[in-house]
Amino acid sequence: MTDSGNVSTDVVAPTTPVPPDIEIAEAATIIPIVELARDRLGIDAADLVPYGHTKAKVSLAHLRTLTDHPDGNLVLVTAMSPTPAGEGKTTTSVGLADGLSLIGQKAMVALREPSMGPVFGIKGGAAGGGYAQVVPMVDINLNFTGDFAAIAAANNLLAALIDNHVHHGNALDIDPRTITWKRVVDLNDRALREVVVGLGGPVNGFPREDGFDIVVASEVMAIFCLATSIKDLRDRLGRIVVGYTRAKKPVRAADLKAHGPMAVILRDALAPNLVQTLEHTPALIHGGPFANIAHGCNSVIATTAALKLADYVITEAGFGADLGAEKFIDIKCRAAGLSPRAIVLVATVRALKYHGGVAVADLKAENVPAMEEGMSNLRRHLRNVTEVFGVPAVVAINRFPSDTDAEIERLKELVAALGSVAVEATHYSDGGAGCADLARAVVEAVEACAGPVSFTYPDELPLAQKVKAVARRIYDADTVTFDAKARKKIEQLEAEGYGHLPVCIAKTQSSFSTDPTMRGAPSGHTVNVREVRLSAGAGFVVMLTGEIMTMPGLPKVPASEHIDIDDEGRITGLS
Amino acid sequence: MTDSGNVSTDVVAPTTPVPPDIEIAEAATIIPIVELARDRLGIDAADLVPYGHTKAKVSLAHLRTLTDHPDGNLVLVTAMSPTPAGEGKTTTSVGLADGLSLIGQKAMVALREPSMGPVFGIKGGAAGGGYAQVVPMVDINLNFTGDFAAIAAANNLLAALIDNHVHHGNALDIDPRTITWKRVVDLNDRALREVVVGLGGPVNGFPREDGFDIVVASEVMAIFCLATSIKDLRDRLGRIVVGYTRAKKPVRAADLKAHGPMAVILRDALAPNLVQTLEHTPALIHGGPFANIAHGCNSVIATTAALKLADYVITEAGFGADLGAEKFIDIKCRAAGLSPRAIVLVATVRALKYHGGVAVADLKAENVPAMEEGMSNLRRHLRNVTEVFGVPAVVAINRFPSDTDAEIERLKELVAALGSVAVEATHYSDGGAGCADLARAVVEAVEACAGPVSFTYPDELPLAQKVKAVARRIYDADTVTFDAKARKKIEQLEAEGYGHLPVCIAKTQSSFSTDPTMRGAPSGHTVNVREVRLSAGAGFVVMLTGEIMTMPGLPKVPASEHIDIDDEGRITGLS
């Protein structure tokens, strides 16, 4: 009922042309999760919290028993600056994990949970694609194990408690004009971006301007993904700053006694979700913060759990390496004491041509010179990974049907000329077998890893200097400017004791610069920070450059129009 | 992790004084749900969709195999007009099911799922109380199996699609001023009652007045509880009327192609949730619509499933018998072809004294004359059950510690004088043993049941006449009046072909009249319908008398302030 697909240990052989994602997923053979956990991970059924027969949470109590186990090797999958369609980080992560399994390594993949909003909008699902998917695909893309619903409920309980506090006498003297805490839904709903609440007279509270974000943009999501235990979760929730008193003192969730009940709502969700790839590689899919105003990685609990359970853990971070990898390292690794031993940079011939100046409509045509031109983008990402972060890099060429052999071969040469290795990966059409070479290259890179990751900046650098460090070292910018209110906010936050936090820079993913139209590898540009937001519970300071959308809208013809269900409960149109 | 309590087949012996609900629940021994389903209900593990070890959905595919099984006996638990504290319908339902199990009957209880909003507000949880509870109590009161989150997501997807349609050219020519479809959250949040959405310029859509309801007040919840299959669910969702075109034609969810994806979101939730009482009687807890603007009963799917699985099925309906039992019969039984074979009227000495004019503060003091005076209320409910609905009645005296033996004995005499039987029930402090006598009386009543339930009015009666039938036959009102806009709406709905639907009267639960201060058994009063709302998907027309709150607020000191979690994940303060 809740579980899609058939139960068996077989792997369905790929066919050409590649069928739609949902057809592959629904035809998949899925090992009962209790068996997979027992046979592949040594986890007893009693240590699982099953959600149907093909999904389970791994109990936090069990994970606590693994603390003394040695850690496996962490491999981050990131990408060059993407085209609007994306370059396939999730499929590459899944394919690489399957490729590692295929060459005899004990591998797992740790991914973000999809948000339901985009499933009904433009983007569709986010459980991989082609023959590189996690299953049960329908469940993962929809309600899954209820984590996002719990995060939304916790977020919205805090919002209700804030307005309720003001309504009932406002003992904390909250200045309603300073309330920054928004409500959330897990849908694309532009009409909720800017609203006025509390209308209709005194019985309904105080009117004030407000807004809704999509749940993945919430600080609760970021906290959920950085928390290491129930206690840490509750403490972080308590530190959330929701606004200011009339005397300009921060008001925290703990002041409203909201953090306890919020943690109560989130208790069960905090255990990571175990599923599997089409080829039965165990996958932990847990948490999914935005990669702009948050750090864009799955939960720390899932990543650390996977490292205890497998020798190779493949994980991904949102957007290109300038955003995703930087935040993965400077925020997540710093907070959780993690260190990747290799970084896979996903590159596509399409994206290279795009950065070489080719229009989106012309990306399918062979164009080696444009690809050579676009190497500037990949080159800088490679430099950042190896020289700034000090981690061995492997370039994964995610091959598309329109790519020509000439393009692929030239790309390999160009990367080799930079002293790195580029490996063609055909997981989308071939599954793990299409990533076996990539897997071997990753094992080599891991074994060559000389030491722990380097951060872009140290904790003690002032906030503005941290932005400058990232802008200069990662983006090759020349100057960082701050709007007056941003500079004032930084001063205020440093005075309040938040100066030691890492920064989370919200920037376009389409360019190293803050201008999405500047392709390739712009340098000497200026980064302007127009707004600064504190995420005290998550433990970072968000620096916004340009407009960042925290509530997407639906397109004219939403994907929902093609999603339906028949009388037997079979779902169609999900991709 | 997700499951509270210990796993064993023992039942914890009651102690005096009765500990807090959560302490009893957390000390409870819970039979693994797979074993309970197998041993008590003959359901294989493969036909369950487990959610942890103590909760599971029973697959719809399995339920379809039971179609030809004979039905058990349906027993409705309802109540006299309640005091503000409620008279204990849920605890009596649970205790009665345990009592039936104790005297050797194969019994189940089918209840509504609690809403999370009130858990953090005033009311607390709704999984029973004392030694008459369903477990795992914490889970049931919080995220449970995610049904309410799925209902909220389906509801809010439709809302987003409406505003998105208007934004992208409004091909259906929806008049935005006529949109009646509200968004929902499963929280008490008064600031969301009346809002303006779509502010901030063209990119955010069209500004319009809007509002949020609590999820239990949504039509999707009512539809979910009346649907008999995935197909019926999808069809009902498609019939939802969300507003009108400028040419005043109804706009349906199907016109927005929203019903398919809404049913997709709800697919897994539609299977009923199996848990157990403290004494291991199987319980289906599924759906939970408001008892004012909706019909206030658990899902048809759960009730019909329970009737296939047990010989006695105890279910409850919200508020007093004038509201809950009437809607249970005229809406749910009519739609689903159900017929109760006995109705248990829960009465308390407290409520009788209240209806005899005693102030709430004085209800603990013995006062037999006031109780005799308050019998007018119980007498009319008894008359309605036996004479209007034609169902055998049993009065359950839910005994409170402050009740005196003199009061209890006099109450039994008074009911006996009316030709009915009243049985003392002490399930709160004694568990099922405290309901053994009540169980025997219920078995006798069921065996005496002469025929199917009678409806208050036939389908073909015009809408206004249906209200008059209920008002005169159930409320003893003399006159029904309609505000001009209500009368106009009735004419419009009848012209649109909705005249055959049953009516769902939203009225105060505190009185037979529409005035909550009129205790006892007022007669000759006037019922005024001030507003009429169509629930075309649910299949009823809501008639609102007085102000009906569809989004509760939080009190000055919300229950959330006392709810917390310790470092080991133990939850405290939930009641």
Automatic annotation (TrEMBL), chains A, B:
Catalytic activity: (6S)-5,6,7,8-tetrahydrofolate + formate + ATP = (6R)-10-formyltetrahydrofolate + ADP + phosphate
Native organism: Phycicoccus elongatus Lp2
Assigned keywords, A-Z: ATP-binding, Ligase, Nucleotide-binding, One-carbon metabolism
Taxonomic placement: Bacteria, Bacillati, Actinomycetota, Actinomycetes, Micrococcales
Binding residues for ATP: T83, P84, A85, G86, E87, G88, K89, T90
Keyword Nucleotide-binding: yes
Pathway per the UniProt entry: One-carbon metabolism; tetrahydrofolate interconversion
InterPro entries for the chain: Formate_THF_ligase (IPR000559), Formate_THF_ligase_CS (IPR020628), P-loop_NTPase (IPR027417)
Keyword presence, Ribonucleoprotein: no
Protein family: Belongs to the formate--tetrahydrofolate ligase family.
Protein name: Formate--tetrahydrofolate ligase
Top-level class of the enzyme under EC nomenclature: ligase
Domain of life: Bacteria
EC number assigned by the record: 6.3.4.3
SUPFAM superfamilies xref list: P-loop containing nucleoside triphosphate hydrolases
Molecular function terms from GO: ATP binding; formate-tetrahydrofolate ligase activity
Matches recorded under Pfam families: FTHFS (PF01268)
GO biological process, one term: tetrahydrofolate interconversion
